[in-house]
Structures are given as C-alpha cells and as structure tokens.
C-alpha cells in the first residue's frame, strides 16, 4: 500500500518519531542518502504562492539525488481543464512522488486515491503537515524531548497551522492548546481526532478563547498570519476580531520564562506578533525555516522506503 502524507495523523506516533530521528541524521550529514539517484523526478505543484516550501522541496529533492519538477498550477491543465485524478494517473507513470500545495483537502485526497506514488500535502486550507514536522524537529532540538511539553497556538484556530498543531502535537504526546476567537475555532472533527490520538500518547488538546489562559505556563508559543492565502478579502474583519490575540511581550510573559516562539512565516509584524517577540531572543524562526529542508527530506526518504517494502 502506497503511503501518503495528507494530514499530520497519517503518521503513527512511532512513525513520526522515526521521521524526526531521520531528519536529525540528515541534518548532520546532508548528502548521506540518495534514494532518488538516477535521477528520479518529484513533481512539486503549487496552486498558491510559496517561498520556503518551494525552495526546501527543490533543494531537498536535489540533495537526495533527484530532480525536482516545480509546476505552477496556473500554467498547467490542473488549473481547470483536468481533474486531480487524471493528473495523478499521468504523473505516476513518470515521477517518484507528488507534492502539492492546494486549497481544499479533498483535492489531495482525490489525487492520493488515484495514484500509486506517494502524495504529500505541501499546505491545504485545512492542514500544513510538512511545516509541523519542521516545527517539531525545531522544538526537539531546543528542548530535547517533545512528550509532555505544552504548546499554545494563538490566532486563527480554523487555519491549516492551528489544525496541524492539534494533530501533530497530540501524536507527539504534547499538550496542545489553541487560543482563538469563538468564530474561528478549529473544526470539531479535528479536535476530536486530536483528543483520540492524545488519549493514546499521554498528550491533550484544548480549545480556549482567552489568549492569556492559552499561553499560561506554556513551553512553546506559536502564531501564524491572521489572513491565510485565499482569505485576503476578509482582512479588515479579521484584523478587528484577532486584535487581542497578538503575541507581544505581555502575552509572552504569561508563558514559561524560557518559552520558545515559533512562526511558520511569512509574518505580519504588528499584527499576529510584535517585532519585539519575533525578532527577540525567544524566537527560533530561522531554525524552524531551515528545518523544512531536513524534515521534508526525511519524509521523502521514509515514504520512498515504504514503496520499496511494498514492492
Ligand atoms: N511556511 C511556509 O509554508 O512558507 P511558504 O508559504 O513560503 O512556503
Ligand atoms: N496559514 C498560512 C500559512 C502560510 C505558510 C496560509 O495558509 O496562508
């Protein structure tokens, strides 16, 4: 069975830990693994803008001995003339894996259902699981262990980042709190899934509306843009509702004194985070951005290994 990575809970706790270990190994010896030597090609498709995801997949695939094929949806038939399922069937004859940044999660599911090569979610409206592998790697580097740590995500609880935080941190045995306005709470089905996983890992998942309560005593504080890609028309309304959720020095003071600050970037300083926090000593955003490379390489190596095992 081909393994895909469409949401954070597509990996078991043991598999997530194995990929993070592999990422740390590849970070120490960047060119140690060449499963794509040949080179084999990996298609990386973008319906939305990207800097980090585009660069880290392109560089990572090349590091693994492969050839990245970056496709902008606007210049492909996927922009309207062809379905995800037909695209999947065309691509599987020529590439080793498909990486796709898109809107609805259902598109990724359709792609995965119709192909024999691994499909990776490079961000959808619902989840950003590759970012979470990088974030967990970063937290592990700075704190040693993941299980038992408390993470507070502030801002848009219905966003891809908040929802991936719920699933990935529950998988890692962490205590994850989302602090968001009631109208922007995470999907209850995602919260329920996170709680089911947390019950097996010793973690927990909590949704709160009070930002101070969400960060109280946290080991890690995280935020993301209030205006995700595709929501630009709602910017004025969102800025009003999210005003009290800005991660600034006052809010950080409620977390542990040595709490880490993470942000997937790009950031709007003065909105979801103050410049003092994101550019301050608790911020680990540049390690986090670099770790996209190592985490995704490990993910690709692992997914391709499952293909070999299955063959
Ligand atoms: N964090 C992240 O996914 O960045 P990009 O949108 O630049 O890829
Ligand atoms: N939530 C953001 C993440 C960007 C990497 C967005 O979807 O635009």
Automatic annotation (TrEMBL):
Pathway: Amino-acid biosynthesis; L-arginine biosynthesis; L-arginine from L-ornithine and carbamoyl phosphate: step 1/3
Entry binding sites for carbamoyl phosphate: 50-53, 77, 101, 128-131, 264-265, 292
Sites where the protein binds L-ornithine: 160, 224, 228-229
Domain (Aspartate/ornithine carbamoyltransferase carbamoyl-P binding): residue spans on this chain: 3-141
Molecular-function GO term, any one: ornithine carbamoyltransferase activity
Keyword DNA damage: no
Sorted UniProt keywords: Cytoplasm, Transferase
InterPro entries in alphabetical order: Asp/Orn_carbamoyltranf_P-bd, Asp/Orn_carbamoylTrfase, Asp/Orn_carbamoylTrfase_sf, Asp_carbamoyltransf_Asp/Orn-bd, Orn/put_carbamltrans, OTCase_ArgI
Subcellular location: Cytoplasm
Pfam families reported in the protein's UniProt record: OTCace, OTCace_N
Domain Aspartate/ornithine carbamoyltransferase Asp/Orn-binding: 148-303
Major place of residence: cytoplasm
UniProt catalytic activity: carbamoyl phosphate + L-ornithine = L-citrulline + phosphate + H(+)
EC number(s) from the headed UniProt entry: 2.1.3.3
Similarity comment text for this entry: Belongs to the aspartate/ornithine carbamoyltransferase superfamily. OTCase family.
HAMAP family linked: OTCase
Official protein name in the record: Ornithine carbamoyltransferase
Native source species: Subtercola frigoramans
């Amino acid at each position: 069975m081909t393994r895909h990575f469409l949401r954070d809970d597509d990996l078991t706790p043991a598999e997530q830990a194995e990929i993070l270990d592999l990422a740390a190994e590849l970070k120490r010896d960047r060119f140690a693994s060449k499963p794509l030597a040949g080179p084999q090609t990996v298609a990386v498709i973008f319906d939305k803008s990207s800097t980090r995801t585009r660069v880290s997949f392109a560089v990572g695939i090349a590091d693994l001995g492969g050839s990245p094929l970056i496709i902008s949806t606007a210049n492909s038939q996927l922009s309207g003339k062809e379905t995800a399922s037909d695209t999947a069937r065309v691509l599987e004859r020529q590439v080793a894996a498909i990486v796709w940044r898109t809107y609805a999660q259902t598109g990724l599911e359709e792609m995965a259902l119709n192909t024999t090569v691994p499909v990776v979610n490079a961000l959808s409206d619902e989840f950003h699981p590759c970012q979470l592998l990088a974030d967990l790697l970063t937290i592990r580097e700075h704190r040693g262990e993941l299980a038992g740590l408390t993470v507070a995500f502030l801002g848009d609880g219905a966003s891809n980042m908040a929802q991936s935080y719920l699933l990935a941190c529950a998988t890692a045995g962490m205590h994850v709190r989302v602090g968001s306005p009631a109208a922007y709470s995470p999907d209850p089905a995602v919260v329920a899934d996170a709680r089911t996983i947390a019950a097996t890992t010793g973690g927990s998942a909590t949704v709160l509306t009070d930002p101070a309560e969400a960060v109280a005593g946290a080991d890690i504080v995280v935020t993301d843009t209030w205006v995700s890609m595709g929501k630009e028309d709602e910017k004025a309304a969102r800025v009003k509702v999210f005003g009290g959720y800005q991660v600034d020095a006052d809010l950080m003071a409620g977390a542990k004194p040595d709490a880490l600050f993470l942000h997937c970037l790009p950031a709007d300083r003065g909105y979801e985070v103050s410049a003092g926090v994101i550019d301050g000593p608790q911020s680990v955003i540049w390690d986090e951005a670099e770790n996209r490379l190592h985490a995704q390489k490990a993910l690709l190596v692992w997914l391709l290994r499952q293909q070999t095992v299955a063959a």
